[in-house]
Amino acid sequence: MKSEKDGIMFIAVCEVAVCEVMALKNPFRFGMVVKGEDFCDRHKEMKEISQAIKSGMSVSVISPRRYGKTSMIVNLLDTLEDYTKVYMDLMTVTSLNDFLERYSSSIFNSLGGIRKFLNDMDKLMKVHANVELNLGNFKFNFEASPNSTRDIEEVIGLPEKFKEKFVIVMDEFQEILNVTNIDLIAILRKKFQFFNNVSFIFSGSKRTMMKEIFSKPQKPFYRFSQIYELKPLERNEVVEFILKKFAKTGLKMERKMAERIYEISCGHAYYVQALCYHLWFMAREAGNIEESQLDEALKKVLLSEKSAFESVWDELNPNQKKVLKVLSYGKSPYSLKMSAGSVKRALETLEKSDIVEKRERYEIIDPILRIWLREEI
Ligand SMILES: Nc1ncnc2c1ncn2[C@@H]1O[C@H](COP(=O)(O)OP(=O)(O)OP(=O)(O)O)[C@@H](O)[C@H]1O
Ligand SMILES: [Mg+2]
To answer: I want to staple 276 with a disulfide (CB 3.0 to 4.6 A). Which of 26, 28, 41, 192 is the partner?
Structure first.
């Protein structure tokens, strides 16, 4: 230290640094789309999907809930240049009108807002009938009734009226099946197949429904898109991601601890973040990271999922419960004192409900549900 003043300055700087560490925000996030450094890379997946898009193809991204579909797609869109990007979430779509409003308003928004096009509206959508599409401040007189198929096609054909190249994301696409008064899927397919300036990314977590839409030869969307089954995050990527985030906030984690987080979560994106989130608070308070904190973090995650798991459990009949319980121990349900036919039926229903899937053998999809069944039921 050159002088007393320098010494005081040095202490002040250190205090600021300590305060910053204390005030650090938890670096793990869940329950929202993650981007940038919160996004554990899905380099391979994004490359493959982006190649398909650039070749003018469409892709259907299917995975169990909270694997990271939306986050991956949003990050992928950021990497695509020269496209007009349209993202629409169909999660709560309940009617034809609702769908057409979301569809047209998100297309207009991606092009700079509907106001720009008010004067050209007649050219863009030549509709004849007479009720209204509510596009923000603008009400578009339009009858979206099942009888006005031509008008519906006119709205669906909107992207064709522009020179831009579009990527249109329809997230939770299976919800379109909620529109029951018209065969909307058939109309979409009829129009979409002639678009030559649009690639679609359809995404959905209700896998049975998504596969029903895209993989059944008798369905309109059969072979319309490449099916991309999004897998859990990769082990090494996750381990590095966790270590780096803890290190950045001044907490050194042993590699084997990060590996254990991967094993508990099976690379399920949401659970990786949720476990680390709880663990981080405990570690920060203790000033170090210990095995017992991870056990506590797991308890917290189990607690926060409890009511969701209970409602899954309550929906099952006795045979399905027995089969699920046996699967949670990694055993074959055919070892149960139950007829093979009953086991098969139970497995089929559990699979249809996206609770189990057939890998080499039937397994419970959600790794935390599996633990909950073993420990709490
Ligand atoms: N690549 C990633 N890296 C780190 N965390 C991720 C990643 N992808 C997703 N997550 C975590 O998982 C959570 C769920 O992600 P996201 O909403 O993208 O999944 P989803 O498959 O679209 O879920 P849903 O089926 O509910 O629509 C995010 O809030 C985030 O915590
Ligand atoms: Mg999603």
So the answer is: 28
309 lines ligand 1 (CB under 6 A): no
The answer as to whether 146 is a domain residue is: yes
Would residue 221 count as lying in a domain? yes
Q: Is 260 in the pocket of ligand 1 (CB under 6 A)?
A: no
Q: Which domain holds residue 358?
A: 273-376
Q: Which tokens hold the place of 302?
A: 């189990």
Q: 269 and 233 in contact (C-beta within 8 Å)? A: yes
Q: b/e per residue, 108-119, with b = 16+ CB within 10 A? A: bebbeebeebee
* Under 8 Å between Cβ of 267 and 19: no
Indicate whether 98 belongs to any domain: yes
Is pTM, for the whole model, over 0.70?
yes
Q: What is the mean pLDDT of the chain?
A: 89
Task: Measure Cα distances from 176 to 62, 192, 206 in Å.
Answer: 15, 15, 12
User: How many Å apart are CA 362 and CA 350, to the nearest integer?
Assistant: 10
Looking at the fold, whether 298 and 223 belong to one and the same domain comes out as no
Q: What is the CATH number of the domain that holds 359?
A: 1.10.10
Beta-carbon-side half-sphere exposure of residue 4 (alpha carbons within 13 Å): 0
Please give the number of the atom of ligand 1 that sits closest to the Cα of 91: 27
Indicate whether 203 and 281 sit together in one domain.
no
Would residue 3 count as lying in a domain?
Answer: no
Which residues have C-beta within 8 Å of that of residue 207, sequence separation ≥ 6? 62, 63, 64, 354, 357
- Ligand 1 contact, 270 CB (< 6 A): yes
**Nearest ligand, measured from the Cα of 34:** 1
Residues 309 and 372 in one domain: yes
Q: What pLDDT was estimated at residue 169?
A: 98
Distance 65 CA to ligand 1 centre (A): 8
Among 227, 157, 164, CA closest to 195: 157
Instruction: Dump pLDDT digits (tens) for 137-183.
Output: 656 655 556 567 888 888 899 999 999 999 999 999 999 999 988 88
Atom nearest to 63 CA in ligand 1: 21
